[in-house]
Amino acid sequence: MIGCPCPLEASQIETLDCEAVLPVVQWLVDRVRVLQDDRRDYEDQRRLNVMNELRLLLERIDKGGANIAVQKLRSLMQSLKNLEMQESEFQSNCNVKTSRLQADVIELEGNIANGCDSKILSDSLDRSFMESLEELNSTKKELAGRCKAVLAVKRQLDDIPSQSELIQYERRFSELYVHIQEKHRQTQKYYGTYNALLEIKELMLKETSLLNSLSSQFRDAITSDAGRMKLINSMEGIVKSSQQKQEKVQLGLLEEQKVSDALKQQYVAAVAEQRHCYTLLKAFREECAENEELRSQSSI
């Protein structure tokens, strides 16, 4: 025998040599016990690994903030299982009652065939019919209530979006957000262009008015000292006004540059946050896949 430390020959088995057969039998018994212990240890280790994985998964769910939704889903699934078990029990009870009623019908048919009293038989039939009718109505009411409860639980389960639906919602909201941002940027650009053109128009109108005024009053003002002084003062006022306008425009330019720098910083931070979100989403999908795999293993 392979692996056995005790030699054994066929002639010893035929002659029932106990001294030669007994050590081999003891070795076989010990070998079977060792194999059983190894298998038991393997099953215990596998069960321990599954429990550890479930514990880690629950910890990750708690960290992700989805513990409430998971608990709600568990309770709903448990309620659905309980209702299904109650429905199966109800069906079995209905089958038992149906068989009992069929036995009663067979008994009544036997009584009719044997020629029992018609009045007693009629009263018995009426009483049985009324009892059966009342029982049927109560059973229908109970069945309707349980069906309503089952539908309510199924509706609650359907209200919880699946992972694919959540991903689609997230994608659609992201696309909508990008579209709204693009429209907002275009609108801001149009408003900025309109305001700039309006300001250019006002400046050109002022310039035209100033040139017309100078053209009409220059000859009259240059002939006298008072007119020349008035013209010089007017020109100095125009220069000061232009300088103030230029300073105001420069201040606006500086503010716009500051806003642009702040927006660039926000953009860089948003890009980093987007990358972080993509990383978290990838990890979440991996955890969901692992969760589904663990559920399939636990159900098996």
Automatic annotation (TrEMBL):
Residues 46-297 form the CCDC93 coiled-coil domain. Transmembrane segments: none annotated. One of its GO terms (biological process) is Golgi to plasma membrane transport. Keywords: Coiled coil. Residues 2-33 form the CCDC93 N-terminal domain. Residues 66-93 form a coiled coil. Belongs to the CCDC93 family. This is Coiled-coil domain-containing protein 93.
